């Protein structure tokens, strides 16, 4: 009788979830129930608007009024995909000065590392890592004054109430100064690097509310929070065009120049209070002011969109975004974590859309503030971009894929320098694909197959010859490197990855490391997929690739579990190896089942890692990766537990950002990873016949979803 009841309960759960999966979701209601509300000054609750290639981050005033106060929180940045600066290379530093050779199978292979063998090498390393760096384009804030003429400080603001409506892309900010209310609406244009602002306050009539444009100087440091007011003599800024309602500012740094145009609906005057500091004073007896601010590489003499047009642009674009692609709704769930998970999902979609959907791979901190000098890390592009395809927004992933063709000559140089064929994709790089020296990044491998992943997802969406023609050359060049990198050991009769490799779990010495488990599996999947691409293109299978596939080393096993790498026989005994990314789980999670994999061994590996891993020393995308593995292992409870694990690096702030630590207060790979995992947990993967495979069947979850694409 008990078994019958369990069977009936399971069937009921199945049909309930299947019904929810098919019902139509009210997307506006879904998004707007997670409108962000800020009722106090919280430097980690800054709100951003943007269009994918440009982002503008505000404090509680709706502009960037207190940049120094917010600097160590979610900084008040203004960044664009085109905004880069480079100091002159007066010493003619070259990447060749950073090379270090590692002996791999009797051959010396050079890698661009953070060389320290001489002062010259150190200087070359620092210059090449620091240049180019992403610019903070400008600080746009209010100049607020009390009745006695003194400036308003953050603590002087009262009656704070700020909202971000992700469905419309509007930030509405309300606060009071000495009892006088101020209301500000801030929006971003969706085709231009432009924000528009509407201000309502009697402080405009008394001259107590003005606004300013201030140009910071690059920090030349790992971070750039947009508030370096030093070095005034090293850059130039000026007003180059002016009329009653329109002003154009030019900012010049070495060979880099760009322009900022401000247009208002009221006559204004500009006063330069100090170098790079411009105050705009509206000449008005009105209590309402509207103005637009556009950042551009070239000067614009034409009128720019006003507030009404910009508001229409953002509302239209965001409605289109939310109306298309996938959606998931947990309304009616009784698991207490469901509401928070749904909030994270909605805000992660918003943040990745405004910060990661452009024509270059994004940096980990997006377009808010610099980490690693603003440079993208290509191994992270999987976490930034794969979710777009799974959420049926493949066009947003494809925006950045053309960049790989642009930088492929640089990737070919790296491969040739190291004696390999094809292209070896960069790790830490820049808009032109130059390789930045890195004592870890130079040895990473797992970014290499990513392009094949992206191309395969694009093909799954379009399934046409045009997609094959567009991406096949780089798919094949990527595979050529992968096949040539694999070394055939005649004594062992198998191909080996390494030595000279650091796996995704960055805890191993490149001199000693070979055959990391996840990378072996990724090699097998990507080379197999590249062969399929040849067949789709009417070409014969590549014999060398088939030989590598046939003789690739097996996944290393010891004591019934998969090792991190074949040489790390102490993978689960050395405390150092129980930190960072548990990337061995990516073998069956990020990747599908293959003939290399033993699911029983993977299950035991998962159980061991779950029990003994030092979760306090992990990163934001580790939790989604674990959830994907749990989903494929048919452990939906563990999938939810992983996504909602109470660990600092799995914290999601009120604005939706994934907090890591004092250095990385936001971490977009965590947001993208969350979305990728949820897509698999609901929409499934190739060969999966379970409804909502990553959602517990305990009666506590009600799930409606639509539009997901299956994971491979």
Task: Explain the overall architecture.
With 712 residues, the chain is of the alpha+beta class. The chain contains 17 helices and 28 strands. The strands form nine sheets. Strands 1-10-11-12-13-20-17-16-15 form a nine-stranded antiparallel sheet. The protein has a four-stranded antiparallel sheet with strand order 9-14-19-18.
Outline the fold blueprint.
Elements: H1 2-22, H2 27-32, E1 36-38, E2 47-50, E3 54-58, H3 67-70, E4 78-80, E5 84-85, E6 99-104, E7 107-112, H4 119-130, E8 133-134, E9 139-144, E10 157-165, E11 170-177, E12 180-188, E13 194-200, H5 203-206, E14 209-214, E15 236-242, E16 246-253, E17 256-264, E18 268-274, E19 277-282, E20 288-296, H6 307-323, E21 327-329, H7 338-356, H8 381-390, H9 394-417, H10 450-462, H11 465-485, E22 487-489, E23 494-496, H12 517-536, H13 543-551, E24 557-558, E25 561-562, H14 599-612, H15 622-632, H16 636-643, E26 651-652, E27 658-659, H17 668-683, E28 704-706
Antiparallel strand pairs: 1-10, 2-3, 3-4, 5-8, 6-7, 9-14, 10-11, 11-12, 12-13, 13-20, 14-19, 15-16, 16-17, 17-20, 18-19, 21-28, 22-23, 24-25, 26-27
Helix pairs in contact: 7-17, 8-9, 8-10, 8-17, 9-10, 10-11, 11-12, 15-16, 15-17
């Amino acid at each position: 009788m008990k078994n019958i009841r369990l069977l009936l309960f399971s069937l009921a759960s199945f049909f309930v979830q299947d019904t929810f999966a098919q019902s139509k979701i009210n997307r506006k209601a879904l998004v707007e129930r997670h409108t962000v509300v800020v009722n106090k000054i919280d430097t980690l609750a800054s709100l951003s608007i943007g269009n994918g290639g440009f982002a503008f981050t505000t404090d509680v005033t709706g502009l960037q009024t207190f940049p120094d106060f917010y600097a160590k929180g979610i900084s008040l940045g203004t960044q664009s995909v085109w905004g880069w600066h480079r100091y002159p290379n007066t010493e003619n530093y070259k990447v060749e000065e950073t090379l270090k050779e590692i002996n791999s199978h009797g051959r010396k292979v050079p890698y661009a590392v953070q060389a320290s063998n001489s002062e010259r090498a150190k200087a070359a390393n620092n210059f090449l890592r620091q240049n180019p760096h992403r610019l903070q384009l400008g600080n746009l804030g209010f100049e607020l004054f009390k009745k006695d003429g003194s400036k308003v400080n953050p603590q002087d603001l009262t009656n704070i109430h700020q909202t971000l409506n992700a469905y419309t892309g509007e930030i509405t900010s309300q606060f009071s100064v000495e009892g006088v209310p101020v209301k500000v609406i801030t929006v971003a244009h969706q085709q231009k690097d432009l924000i528009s602002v509407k201000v309502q306050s009697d402080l405009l009539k008394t001259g107590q509310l003005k606004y300013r444009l201030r140009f910071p100087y690059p920090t030349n440091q790992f971070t750039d929070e947009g508030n370096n007011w030093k070095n005034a003599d090293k850059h130039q800024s000026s007003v180059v065009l002016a009329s009653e309602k329109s002003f154009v500012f030019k900012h010049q740094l070495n060979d880099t120049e760009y322009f900022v145009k401000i247009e208002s609906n009221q006559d204004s005057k500009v006063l330069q209070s100090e170098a790079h500091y411009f105050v705009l004073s509206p000449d008005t007896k009105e209590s309402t002011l509207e103005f637009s601010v556009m950042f551009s590489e070239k000067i614009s003499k034409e009128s720019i969109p006003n507030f009404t047009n910009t508001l229409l642009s953002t509302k239209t674009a965001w409605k289109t975004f939310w109306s298309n692609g996938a959606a998931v709704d947990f309304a009616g769930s009784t698991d207490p974590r469901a509401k928070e998970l749904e909030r994270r999902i909605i805000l992660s979609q918003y943040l990745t859309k405004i910060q990661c959907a452009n024509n270059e791979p994004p940096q980990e901190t997006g377009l808010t503030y610099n980490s690693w000098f603003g440079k993208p890390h290509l191994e992270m592009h999987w976490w930034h971009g794969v979710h777009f395809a799974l959420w049926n927004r493949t066009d947003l992933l494809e925006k950045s894929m053309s960049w790989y063709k642009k930088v492929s000559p640089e990737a070919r140089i790296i491969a040739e320098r190291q004696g390999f064929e094809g292209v070896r994709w960069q790790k830490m790089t820049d808009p032109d694909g130059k390789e930045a020296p890195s004592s870890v990044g130079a040895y990473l491998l797992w970014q290499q197959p990513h392009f094949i992943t992206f191309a395969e997802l694009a093909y799954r969406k379009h399934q046409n010859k045009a997609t094959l023609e567009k991406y096949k050359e780089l798919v094949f060049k990527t595979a050529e490197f992968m096949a040539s990198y694999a070394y055939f050991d005649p004594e062992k009769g198998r191909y080996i990855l390494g030595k000279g490799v650091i796996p995704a779990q960055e805890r191993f010495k490149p001199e000693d490391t070979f055959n990391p488990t996840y990378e072996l599996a990724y090699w097998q999947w990507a080379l197999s997929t590249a062969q399929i691409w040849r067949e789709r293109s009417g070409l014969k299978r590549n014999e060398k690739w088939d030989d590598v596939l046939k003789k690739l080393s097996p996944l290393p096993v010891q004591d019934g579990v998969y090792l991190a790498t074949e040489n790390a026989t102490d993978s689960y005994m050395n405390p150092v190896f129980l930190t960072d990314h548990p990337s061995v789980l990516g073998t069956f999670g990020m990747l599908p089942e293959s003939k290399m994999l033993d699911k029983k061994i993977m299950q035991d590996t998962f159980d061991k890692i779950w029990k003994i891993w030092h979760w306090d020393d992990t990163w934001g995308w580790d939790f989604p990766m674990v959830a994907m593995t749990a989903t494929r292992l048919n452990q939906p409870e563990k999938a939810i537990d992983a996504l909602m694990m109470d660990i600092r690096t799995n914290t999601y702030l009120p604005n939706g950002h994934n907090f890591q630590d004092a250095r990385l207060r936001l971490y977009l790979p965590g947001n993208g990873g969350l979305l990728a995992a949820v897509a698999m947990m609901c929409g499934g993967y190739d060969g999966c016949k379970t409804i909502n495979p990553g959602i517990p069947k305990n009666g506590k979850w009600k799930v409606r979803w639509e539009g997901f694409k299956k994971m491979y």
